[in-house]
Amino acid sequence: MNCTEVYKLQQDVTDARKRLDNCLKKGGDCSEFEQEVSDAEDKLRPHEPKLVICDLLIGTWAFNGNGYTGTLTIEASDVQDNGSASFSGHAVIDIPHRDTLDGSYDVNTGVLRFTRTGDDNNARFQPQQYYGHIFANPRGNAKTTFGGVFAEGAPPLNSSSPWGWFMVRQ
Questions:
Q1: Is pLDDT of 125 > 90?
Q2: Can you give the pLDDT at residue 68?
Q3: Which of 129, 100, 96 has its CA nearest to residue 117?
Q4: Is 49 exposed, middle or buried (0-12, 13-18, 19+ CB in 10 A)?
Q5: What is the pTM of this model?
Q6: Sign of the torsion angle spanned by Cα atoms 5, 8, 12, 17
Q7: Where residue 167 falls among pLDDT bands split at 50, 70, 90?
Q8: What are the C-alpha distances in Å from 70 to residues 31, 112, 167?
Q9: Where are the beta strands (DSSP E) in the chain?
């Protein structure tokens, strides 16, 4: 299920709760609206773990790759029941170029992988392969951060690349 669909289910719950609240303020029989809320929550419940992954990935990140800075935006994600997700987006690291991103995330391992492809059919660089992990945030007081290594061409093996990268949720 993609994040747009999960967010739609979440919005359905919010809308149903608003209708129930309006009914309760007016008084009278609100059983129809109570049932609507219950039905919407039942539809969302099995997808709540996916909602967490969507909230984690979708959005704009401040990016630093080997000292080159810019933004990385994850725009769409498809989340599987096993906690893996595929995503797409774009990066603006060397303005005015807008590069394509395609990648995956595994909630079970915290591993994020993506490929950055140049907007001009790789005239500027070979596709770059990124490998990294989500940073631990045991106190919950830091912005979500991923970091790892990257290489041009073949994917890096864990720590085989001399180039590092990180991105912080904006």
A1: no
A2: 92
A3: 100
A4: middle
A5: 0.84
A6: positive
A7: very high
A8: 51, 18, 9
A9: 59-65, 68-79, 84-92, 99-106, 111-117, 128-134, 145-152, 163-169
